[in-house]
Specification:
The protein is built from twelve helices and eight strands. It has 258 residues and is of the alpha/beta class. The protein has one domain (6-256): Aldolase class I (TIM Barrel, Alpha-Beta Barrel), CATH 3.20.20. Helix 3 (84-89) links the parallel strand 3 and strand 4 (94-97). Helix 1 runs parallel beside helix 2 and helix 7 (143-154) crosses helix 9. The chain is globular. The termini are close together. It comes from Natronogracilivirga saccharolytica. Its main location: cytoplasm.
């Protein structure tokens, strides 16, 4: 059994304003907000709900808070953007970078993501770096090449010690919001491949410390099977993280694996 922690990170996307965020924490089972050895729970609300998320947590809450994006500059004329200093001011522990929706809808490439990763690390924020293939790339048997390129490009120039502060999330894009899910075997195959690529780039010792999350429609019904795989270290959760009961169940399932 892996000695790595399990991270259950909810990506709320463009959902859950401040009122819904307050309701979420009010409804979240108190047991899910306690520290569990080897399990980390986090939610990543929209920017406007970050402060509410902090205020709504119970004083003993172990749920971490993250953002869904950040800019690579410190400040300036970047209308609509958010800096790492703004995130640290509200106490963010994590930031999601390179999500497939950012790549597809906002034109973010590996070079942009790489700059954001470096900026987050400088600020002491853990980047959750997303990589993954679309359906056509998998059908063309290009999925390993795509993920290899994204992984290397997004992490270019990092040291082994910096890599140890990064989380990777594998997104089979064809399984996001479609109801489709990669089989546990497919997930493990890609997660093992990513870890092997990290070992080639940064050394096995550093690669073995990195949490690699599954980001393709993990939910309570399939989480147990996925989390049993040796290289699946948690989930980047979409729809299921919007429901307090489902999120609590995912945390409980993760605890069962430790």
């Amino acid at each position: 059994m892996s000695t790595r922690s399990i991270l259950i990170a909810g990506n709320w996307k463009m959902n859950m304003g401040p009122n819904d965020t307050a309701d979420f924490f009010e409804q979240l089972d108190a047991e899910s907000q306690k520290q569990i050895d080897g399990v980390i729970a986090a939610v990543c609300p929209p920017f406007v709900s970050l402060a509410t998320a902090f205020d709504s947590r119970k004083s003993a809450s172990a749920v971490k808070i993250g953002a869904q994006n950040v800019h690579f500059e410190d400040n300036g004329a970047f209308t609509g953007e958010i800096s790492t200093s703004m995130l640290t001011e509200v106490g963010c522990d994590y930031v999601i970078l390179g999500h497939s929706e950012r790549r597809e809808y906002f034109g973010e490439d590996d070079a942009i993501i790489n700059k954001k990763v470096k900026k987050a690390l400088l600020a002491g924020i853990t980047p959750i770096v997303c990589v993954g293939e679309v359906l056509d790339e998998r059908k063309q048997n290009r999925h390993f090449d795509v993920v290899k390129t994204q992984t290397a490009g997004s992490l270019e120039g990092l040291s082994a010690s910096e890599l140890e502060k990064v989380v990777i999330a594998y997104e089979p894009v064809w399984a996001i919001g479609t109801g489709e899910t990669a089989s546990p075997e497919q997930a493990q195959e890609m997660h093992a491949f990513i870890r092997d690529e990290l070992a080639k780039l940064f050394g096995k010792e550093a690669a073995d410390t990195v949490l690699i999350l599954y980001g393709g429609s993990m939910k309570p019904a399939n989480a147990g099977e996925l989390l049993q795989k040796p290289d699946v270290d948690g989930g980047l959760i979409g729809g299921a993280s919007l429901k307090p009961a489902d999120f609590a169940k995912l945390v409980a399932i993760a605890a069962e694996q430790k």
